[in-house]
Amino acid sequence: MALGLLLLSTMDTATSRTATSCFMVLVGIGMGCQMQMVTTIAQNSVELRDMGAASAAVNLFRTLGGSLGVAVFGSLFTRAVQHHPPTAAGDAYRHAVATGTHQIFLIAALLCAVAFAAALCVKEVPLRGKPGTPAPPVPAAVASGRR
Q1: Of 17, 25, 27, 22, nearest in space to 104 by CA
Q2: HSE on the CB side for 46, CA within 13 Å?
Q3: How far apart, in Å, are the Cα atoms of 77 and each of 16, 28, 38, 99?
Q4: Are the CB atoms for 77 and 108 separated by under 8 Å?
Q5: Which residue did the predictor score with more confidence, 13 or 1?
Q6: How far apart are CA 81 and CA 136, in angstroms?
Q7: Inter-residue long-range contacts of 31-39, CB under 8 Å, 24+ positions, other chains counted
């Protein structure tokens, strides 16, 4: 996902639709894999009776993060294009749009890199089986918090 966002940040007014589509496919694949992993990790990290609450918390924070992201990135984009109305010289407006999208995608790529580094610190918890089956033994290194 970070690579796709970084590639999107390199776009300018001459970037082809094919290249843009390929970059967006990378972001979509990364986002799709990330969303399923976060939900699985949250559900597996709580007791069976708390699984609904964990799923709800994941969805709540995902929604809040999306809303906050749209607001922040929208204000960054607006700041980049506010002095170049669409009716002005076409090249100046297109350049302002390219600058605004560059900033947004670059910041998003940096946030994804930070999230990836944070994900490396998540404690590994072995997956549970069906309800009623005993949990797999936890390796000593995981139980003590060491990696």
Answers
A1: 27
A2: 16
A3: 21, 21, 29, 8
A4: no
A5: 1
A6: 55
A7: 31/1, 33/1, 34/1, 35/62, 38/62
Token pair of 145 as six digits: 């918090």
Here the tokens at position 59 are: 């969805």
> Which amino acid, residue 122?
V
Integer Cα distance of 105 and 3 in angstroms: 10
pTM score of the predicted model: 0.74
Counting residues of the chain whose pLDDT is more than 90, the rounded percentage is 45
Alpha-carbon Rg for the chain, nearest whole angstrom, is 21
Domain boundaries, the chain: 2-126+135-143
Record the tokens describing residue 116, joined without a space. 């990836």
> What gap in Å lies between CA 45 and CA 108, rounded to an integer?
27
